[in-house]
Amino acid sequence: MKTTEFIWFDGKLVPWNEAQVHVLTHSLHYGSAVFEGIRAYACTNGGSAVFRLKEHAQRLLNSGKIIGLTIPYTVEELEKAIVDTLVANHMPDAYIRPLSFVGYGEMGVYPGNNPVQTIVAAWPWGAYLGAEALEKGIRVKTSSFARSHVNTSMSKAKAAGNYINSILAKIEAKEDGYDEAVMLDTNGFVSEATGENIFIVRDGVIKTTPWTSILGGITRDSIITLGRDLGYTVKEEQFTRDEFYIADEAFFTGTAAELTPIRELDHRQIGEGHAGAVTKHLQKEFFRIVKGENPAYEHWLHRYSI
After folding, report:
1. 209-255: per-residue pLDDT in tens?
2. Spatial separation of the C-alpha atoms in residues 220 and 253, rounded to whole Å
3. Alpha carbon 91 to chain centroid distance?
4. Can you give the pTM of this predicted structure?
5. CA 67 to CA 52: how far, in whole Å?
6. By the 8 A CB rule, do 188 and 164 touch?
7. Distance spanning both ends of the chain, measured CA to CA
8. With bands split at pLDDT 50, 70 and 90, how would you rate the model's confidence at 130?
9. Residue 166 belongs to what H/E stretch?
10. Residue ranges of the alpha helices (H) in 100-182?
């Protein structure tokens, strides 16, 4: 990965290579950490903006609360830390990774009085699933690994430990020659991918898995709002794998994936086998918003200057 100059670590900007922890740090052994993925974009009319910064900062705090990890910062303090990191690294656009974790101290499953530490890192990162994928779409498979049950690992927390499920599914998909995996919930309905939410389009109606077995994605929420504002019918409704097969279009959303079309699931071509008209429309308008070209959504942007 491409490194930058500084990482914000517990209130201080430290050189990238000095942002280190002990090998017996609690979260390294037990996954006791929460994190966010955030993007900043260079805007067409000058300056830069972090997309939905406040919502991401709040979700980090919410994730901590869910798993019993008290993060010693407010939303406003986290926002400032993120912008300070971008400015210190002279980054007009970036992928941003805040992480709060249980630090070094007592070992054992119970974290006890170990300190809670927080970092913010940022680095250049293009299209997560490949620039070509944004146009042509990707090939995906249904994973043999189900999305964890909602009372097993607290699915509404963006917690590090939860992602072993995603890691297993992603490895399986890549080793089988696919770009990404689709996971079903424990009742057999389509849940989400390893790091993305899922949308399908059929007869002009957009459908996405409701807030049941999924992590509530901020990009997902943005696309639901955008789709309705553009006049589409958007339903939050459970659907099955075979309904996915006969969709006219399908796409993933996520901070890293942005809005990536799906051209094939389990060797079944989806629609015309590339990004469809609805997907392209949403994709175009989404990128206009994040680049500051649509004043109606200015409230989603946290502006900053290098």
Report:
1. 999 999 999 999 999 999 999 999 999 999 999 999 999 999 999 99
2. 6
3. 20
4. 0.96
5. 23
6. no
7. 22
8. confident
9. helix 164-175
10. 133-136, 150-153, 164-175
